[in-house]
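Encode chain A's predicted structure.
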Amino acid sequence: MNRIFITGIGTGVGKTIVSACVTAALQADYWKPVQSGSEEGTDTQTVRSLVPEGITVCHQEAYVLKEPASPHLAARLEHVTIQTTEIIRQANQIQPANRPLVIEGAGGLLVPLTDDVLTLDLIQDLHAGVIIAAQNYLGSINHSLLTASVLQHAGVPVIGWIFGGDYHTNEEDVVRLSGYPMIGRIPFAREVNRAFVQQQAQLLTAPLKALLA
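Encoded structure for chain A:
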């Protein structure tokens, strides 16, 4: 499984930190094909500052949009046409020959990329396996299991869950009810830097490699 797509149960659940940790753990390349809200900085810039230097290539986005909104809305406001065929073309072009490509999505599975294409559709077209990033909050069990259910119904291969933040027993319920394994958890940190990401990556390496074998 050379393409790993990082999706979240919602917005603001730590997809970018999960992406950085998974990228470092697998010594993979990183790509976020569609970035919105770019005036606040890009996720590619963040990941590049967090992963070890000299191994990972953080590839340029296919589409960068200023508006902090869903890609389809940001593109509409900025008169940009997102073409998923172009995203697939670029994915095939940049795919590393000897290591995985970690692909970070925008928001959750059902976020529209265009008027007709959802993030879920792109995952299927990329033939990627999915890691679900989740955190505990009021309603997170519902959001987690809805995400899992959509992936199950679509027949998308799921590698497992990576939880963030403080531990809660809800994680065990989500794992049990979804049937998808827990890969690990990334705690909150006052400062997220390269050393923190490398520490978390070392903890994720063995379970990731076991699940990807």
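The mean pLDDT is 96.
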